[in-house]
Specification:
With about 190 residues, the chain is mainly alpha-helical. It has one domain. About 75% of the residues lie in helices and about 0% in strands. It contains seven helices and no strands. α1 packs parallel to α3, α2 runs antiparallel to α3 and α3 packs antiparallel against α4.
Amino acid sequence: MSYLRTFLPWIIFAVLPSGSWQWAALAALVVAVAVIAQQVRAGVGFDALIIELGSAVFFAALAVIAFADPHSGLHDYSAALSSGTLAVIAGGSLAIGKPFTMGIAKRTTPREVWGLKPFIRTNVVITAAWTVAFALTALVLAVVAHAGNAHSTPATLIQIAGFALPMIFTVRYVAHVQAKAAKVAP
């Protein structure tokens, strides 16, 4: 559920009609701000809201651009830019030593494991997988947009795969790490 909440603004933006991209960007911004506010009220620190904060900044900028010029050439590349932005946010979280998945994992993991090397390494691996998936998705969506198919069914399927594949990897990798730890534990 945490990943769904984290990526809800991006999902909203992806599923709303692309012809109304300014409204989709505004809706995504409103959802991003609402998610941040709800999480802060629940006691979640800003260090655990890396994607959410990046989402709010991205969708604020995109909404301004989209409302200023609804026919901007940027429209066709907005899906690629979305995935590219996520790749930069995720990669940036790795670069500063705060993998974005750590904040999500801490919500369901006992505090005593947060500083353990296996927990940190698991989150580095998972965040790296998300970063690669976002970067590849951005690249493929840019190629599709350049070919004139930015608002096609294949583009939508590429966006879905860009979230679904790293999500599946995350679930399977966590299960693998937990099973491996269970074998080692006394």
